[in-house]
Amino acid sequence: MRVNYPRRPFRRIRSxxxxxxxxxxxxxxxxxxxxxxxxxxAGRTCDGRNVVAPAASFAQAASRVAPAVxxxxxxxPHADTADxxxxxxxxxxxxxxxxxxxxxxERSFSSGFVLRAGEVIASAHAVAAAQGVWIxxxxxxxxxxxxxxxDRRSDVALLAVPADxxxxxxxxxxxxxxxxxxxxxxxxxxxxxxxxxxxxSAWPRVLPGSVTVPLIQTDVALxxxxxxxxxxxxxxxxxxxxxxxxxxTGVYMGVSFAIPMETVLQAAAELKSAGYVRRGTxxxxxxxxxxxxxxxxxxxxxxGALVAKVLDKGMARAAGLRPGDVVTSLDGRRIGDxxxxxxxxxxxxxxxLLSLGIWxxxxxxxxxxxxxxxxxDTPPAAGASDAPEEHRLGLMLLAPQLARGHGPGVFVASxxxxxxxxxxxxxxxxxxxxGREVANAEDFDEALASTLNARSVxxxxxxxxxxxxxxxxxxxx
Length: 477
Known about the structure:
By secondary structure, the protein is an alpha+beta fold. It contains 10 helices and 31 strands.
């Protein structure tokens, strides 16, 4: 299942299609070998730092990161994500199939990682609408998690997990550079602890209409279930949190993005202390000023922040700002680029006067605007908690007359609670409970009653003609 969040900001050109000849393949291999060999020969300087090329394998780095990686299981309201437009930015979060429950719930999974004792980093879009959140650790233990807070702007969520012996990640001290080798670790399509590797394609990358923080663009493969997992370097140090892909299907098409750890750490600190991320706002949406736009607007240089939209409710409209204005200075300081302006506004306190120098109609003028507090994301009143004992593990069974003629066993009409958390779906046929065959609802109830003292129950489920045991752990146990 794909998740389109946020909505598509704009259309993009679709990827080109073509075959791969042996000659092309040989050239690719040769180019890779030459590039790898040159990088391995010596370190290089990037933004004033020395970068050492990785070893021939990410195996050691992945082994270092793996103990800190977790799976995030969420029960949330069912969301209709059908969309047939062109390529867009997708958060590759939800895995598995939605369970069509009477109350419209579904189960989804994503990835996360341990930041420090009792605290897990996850994607905000994965838990924002959660009715229950559970964390599965690398050693198989499962815990109900509490959402301390989340921030959609940075797509960072902080979860509290009552578990001992958590292994935190090692955070990289230096920023990445374009060309750096990096790898991701997560659970694409539910395949836990999968490693994919590539290079940093660009840094920083700002995506209009999506998350508003600078992103790390890579060619590392991310797919449904990868979101929230760590992006790490060859030393096993985490440089970012994987967040989204650029795709027209919701699956990987060669371009992916991660939130830099600098941003993750800043957001996590505020989420822990206040439950939300404090930001100022003046009620505008801006974009970078390119050389072509600078020429069009008559600017002497390609710098500043171009106002693309003025919100109906905001101090910018009251102050007279309008689309096409270019903010060139703030409180007497020259604005180098859009991100510098956005960061300055974010840090502004409510009621603070901001003096903006703007470029309009090929001339400069000054505008004074009062900053406001941006509406913060509010975490749920309470986090996930194990529910009291459920009837039939939260399953509703299909009426016997409707199931007649489809073979022995009982058919799932809907699932909730522990059953939907385990992944059971409407239409599943249950033929055995802990190895005891069941032919009807009476058999099922008797077999289930014999397991009342067990924390987990193994159900033999036939789905699409394939039999598979699914463990269901009772909530509250």
